[in-house]
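retry 2 of 3: previous attempt timed out while embedding PBG. Reduced batch size to 1 and resubmitted. Inputs unchanged:
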Amino acid sequence: MEFPVTRMRRLRKNSQIRDILRETKLSAEDLIYPIFIKEELKKGQVESIDTMPGEKRYSLEDMVDEAKILEDKGLKSILLFGVPRQKDEVGSSAYDPQGIVQKSIKILKEETDLVVMSDVCLCQYTTQGHCGILENEEIVNDETLEYLSQIALTHAEAGADVVAPSDMMDGRVESIREILDVNGFDDVLIMSYAAKYASAFYAPFRDAVCSAPCFGDRKTYQMDPSNSQEAIREAELDLIEGADILMVKPALPYLDIIKKIKDEFKVPTAAYNVSGEYSMLKAGIEAGYLSEDSIWEALLSIKRAGADLIITHFAGDFLQKL
Ligand code: PBG
Ligand code: ZN
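retry 2 succeeded.
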């Protein structure tokens, strides 16, 4: 049937009709809020982040208060990033059972019902700022796995529901799954940053957690933005190694990758709406170039592409509007 019998505008006639025909809907359950906890800060101390308007680095206690406020507004899950007091060559504060993330996990599990997820990586914790262990100017893969596994184990011991390795070393999902299982944590999920690109959109995050590499870049471990078949291989390997949730990162410039991975594997898929995506829209809104509706539209596009979960700094803004 064609025009004039078929009239697509009938489907958009008024808001009630549009409401019942809407295909993609965003809800609080879809969102994961990434939060920064800085070990050095004392209760009552909160730092704003210059490159991420509206976002903060919290002390342990203030982080819990913020998490509770968001939980009251409907937030279901949170992803923790630590900013340690001390860094060294092997990132030992990352696998210290008394480390800032381990403490944060523990207190959140005690005081909230949130699903607690933790970033597993070395870059905030090493003096060289890379996601792996350095030997002779090279990030060495297999040695790094032992450190990552140890970090994941201490997070599980602290009570993490989900560990999320963001380093992009080969074989890390397998070695994390193994150490978790051997230690009785077979119920802890792994959300793997399966297709993580070497992206310019991470710049504000590196400022937020002081994790910029001291030399070089992350291109020997993060993916080339030109590649999509490689993303499928990365995702497939992570699944074989035992990943429960696959993640694509960044989100908006990689919607095609989200769709491909979701269509191909049909497993829970997350997308990381990264710091640069956040700051870009925030700056546009603050300057008056864009309205706040752009936030909703951006998040919606990520879900429409196939993401079941969206890690986003906009979680607070979104929940406020609901
Ligand atoms: C590092 C890490 C990065 C992000 C999360 N974990 C950045 C990087 O690879 O340098 C980016 C998050 C964001 O930009 O919001 N393991
Ligand atoms: Zn890292």
